Structure formats: C-alpha cells, structure tokens
Amino acid sequence: xxxxxxxxxxxxxxHILFDVSLSLRKGEIVxxxxxxxxxxxxxxxxxxxxxxxxxxxxxFGGEEVTGRKPYQxxxxxxxxxxxxxxxxxxxxxxxxxxxxxxxxxxxxxxxCTTSSRRSGRSRAGGRGS
Length: 129
Ligand SMILES: Nc1ncnc2c1ncn2[C@@H]1O[C@H](COP(=O)(O)OP(=O)(O)OP(=O)(O)O)[C@@H](O)[C@H]1O
Ligand SMILES: [Mg+2]
Hints:
By secondary structure, this protein is an alpha+beta fold. The protein is built from 3 helices and 4 strands, in the order ββαββαα.
C-alpha cells in the first residue's frame, strides 16, 4: 500500500535522510524506531508531503505521490499527526481543543480545562516523537 523507495530529504543544505526505504501492506501496523534525531519525524513528514525528498520516490496504492501537497495526500488517506507541543503555538489548550472539536471554545465549557500555554508541562518527559 505504501512504498518509500530510497528517499533523500534535506532541511536546506542539511542532508537528513540517506536512501530510506520502507513498505507497508494494507492492514499492517509498522513502528519506526530510532534515537533522538535519527530522522523519524523527517521520514513521516516526507511521506505526508510536508517535506519533498530530493531523490527517491513514494508510492501510495501503487501511484507515485512524491511531491504531492499534504492536502492532496489527506484526500488519499495519508496524514501526519504531530505529537509535538505548540501545534498551534499562539492558542491556549482550550482554544485549540475547542476549535477542532466544537468543544469549550464554542461555549460548552466542558472537557479540556488546560490553559498552560508555553508552560512546557504538557509532556511526560523526553523530546522524542
Ligand atoms: N526544521 C529543521 N531544520 C533543520 N534541521 C532539522 C529540522 N528538523 C529536524 N532537523 C534535524 O534533522 C535530524 C532528524 O530530526 P528528526 O526530527 O527527524 O528526528 P527524530 O528521529 O524524529 O528525533 P526525535 O526522536 O527527537 O523526535 C536531526 O539532526 C534534527 O536536528
Ligand atoms: Mg521526531
């Protein structure tokens, strides 16, 4: 279903991914393991269209999707779900949650109660993702 073939991805001049390949079949769950900074997030961002590999190709459902925009890939069933803090950096937790669910920001006043914007308290530990 997903084939990543020999991709090389950069941040500017920094060459991060060197000839990365992986494949997933329908129904499989695959974990990508590696130390901090190994390139896991960069790999996922490449697959989801947030970064464009300079070399290599990505096929989804047999179709070449390398270089497609994230919104185009979402429509095909591929999306990136970040685990980082500050996803919406200027919003409080309440506003972020409400804007995506129709929850407290829309007046229900229930559910998310955090407003610890930029407090750095929202993670259990480490910096990995
Ligand atoms: N926006 C960026 N600009 C430049 N270099 C970056 C950027 N984001 C990540 N890097 C670098 O790319 C390399 C791979 O980072 P990446 O975030 O993909 O690693 P990771 O495996 O997800 O790490 P972690 O376990 O810490 O989440 C690291 O050397 C990192 O410093
Ligand atoms: Mg990461």
